[in-house]
Design a protein that fits this description.
With 183 residues, this protein is an all-alpha fold. Helices cover 69% and strands 0% of the residues. The chain has seven helices and no strands. Helix 2 packs antiparallel against helix 7 and helix 4 runs antiparallel to helix 5. The longest helix is centred in the middle third of the chain and has 34 residues. It is globular. It starts with 9 loop residues before the first helix and ends in a 13-residue tail after the last helix.
Length: 183
């Protein structure tokens, strides 16, 4: 539990933000269009909008690498399994498929939360509880731009709109529009 004056945990921040109108859809657009790991995106927003500022290149690369490994090895396979169960199988009764779906969904959410713990603890390990390179302004756009560059992702108009939606509810501002790739 956090005190009233301490920033929320990454998980609490993410649950609150994800529940805002249009944010879950915006996150899924970025995940589907650009291959964004939503947990990393939310981490970028959380880190800077809770007053911690920017993160240096080396530390950021380590944070991304550790989270990406977990996401690739654990979260994505569960997401794939959940989607397969949702599609169903002709030999699997619907009631059994629904129970399996809920079980896999619960496991996926637990692993998403574990990834956020990895992100939070790695950042604290590398940067300290209250460390920043620069506290001037909101670093969300810089962190998001750096993350998208690591992915080799070029946001189109729909992606820019999704980022703006997420950041509007987080109290941040969207990165400056990049050259668009029209879908």
């Amino acid at each position: 539990m956090t005190s009233a004056d301490s920033p929320p945990t990454l998980w609490d921040f993410s649950v609150d933000l994800y529940g805002r109108p249009g944010v879950s859809r915006a996150c899924l657009v970025l995940q589907d269009n650009l291959g964004v790991d939503v947990n990393l995106l939310l981490f970028c927003v959380w880190w800077s909008t809770t007053g911690r500022g920017d993160i240096g290149e080396e530390a950021f690369a380590t944070i991304v690498q550790r989270a990406t490994r977990w996401n690739h090895d654990v979260v994505r396979p569960l997401r794939t399994a959940r989607k397969a169960v949702k599609r169903g199988h002709p030999s699997l009764p619907a009631t059994e498929a629904e129970a399996l779906y809920r079980t896999v969904l619960d496991a996926e959410l637990l692993m998403e939360r574990a990834e956020q713990t990895i992100l939070e603890r790695t950042a604290e390990e590398l940067l300290g509880q209250d460390s920043s390179t620069s506290r001037a302004g909101d670093a969300s756009p810089r962190l998001i731009e750096r993350y998208l560059a690591k992915l080799g992702a070029v946001p189109d108009r729909q992606d820019q709109q999704a980022l703006a939606t997420i950041l509007s509810f987080a109290g941040g501002r969207a990165p400056a529009p990049a050259p668009h790739r029209d879908a």
